[in-house]
């Protein structure tokens, strides 16, 4: 099996990360940004060392908003991340599966019931050593503590405590994480 296509794509991804640095994004060493990534970022936004944004990831930060992805973390293909004017903080050693939908800002039902005029806006924090499965939805104000697994297709809208596997809609604790041997 030839490794050259993989090496060529890896080199191109590192070159794209370098180009984002020229535009003002803080990016650590060996950071990779694959083709098709659409990224609009605010001041103070950063990608940690060896972090990866895979193809077709969309991240939108506006106004005073900022996002940070820690070292050795990645967003798999097809992630849609709306930070808006809020803050998104993703820790170290975080693996996020394909098709993530993450919102720091979203329409909300208020007293008048007019979804188009009412919004929920709140920062989102994802701790370190977290695995988020495919097609998970994360809502404004969510906090995922360290050492958490979120099963595929879950909807996260509150605080997920450390040391658990969560799943469902809304996400609920399914079982404790197994102790490391």
Automatic annotation (TrEMBL):
Q: Which sequence ranges are marked TM in the entry? A: none
Keyword Nucleotidyltransferase appears in the UniProt entry: no
UniProt keyword terms in alphabetical order: Acyltransferase, Repeat, Transferase
Question: For this UniProt entry, which residues form the secretion signal?
Answer: none
GO MF, any single term: maltose O-acetyltransferase activity
What are its E.C. numbers?
2.3.1.79
**Top EC class per UniProt?**
transferase
- UniProt similarity note: Belongs to the transferase hexapeptide repeat family.
Q: What's the protein name?
A: Maltose O-acetyltransferase
* Species of the source: Roseateles asaccharophilus
């Amino acid at each position: 099996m030839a490794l050259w296509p993989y090496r060529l794509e890896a080199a191109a991804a590192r070159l794209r990360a370098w180009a984002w640095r020229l535009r003002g994004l803080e990016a650590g060493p060996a950071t990779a940004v694959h083709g098709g990534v659409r990224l609009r970022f605010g001041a103070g936004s950063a990608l940690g060392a060896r972090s990866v944004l895979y193809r077709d990831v969309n991240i939108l930060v506006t106004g005073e908003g900022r996002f940070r992805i820690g070292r050795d973390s990645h967003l798999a293909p097809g992630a849609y991340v709306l930070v808006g004017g809020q803050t998104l903080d993703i820790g170290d050693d975080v693996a996020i599966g394909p098709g993530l939908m993450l919102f720091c800002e979203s329409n909300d039902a208020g007293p008048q019931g007019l979804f188009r005029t009412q919004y929920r806006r709140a920062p989102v924090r994802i701790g370190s050593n977290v695995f988020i499965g495919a097609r998970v939805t994360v809502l404004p104000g969510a906090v995922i503590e360290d050492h958490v697994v979120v099963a595929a297709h879950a909807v996260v809208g509150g605080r997920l405590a450390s040391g658990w596997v969560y799943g469902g809609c809304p996400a609920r604790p399914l079982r404790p994480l197994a102790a490391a041997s």
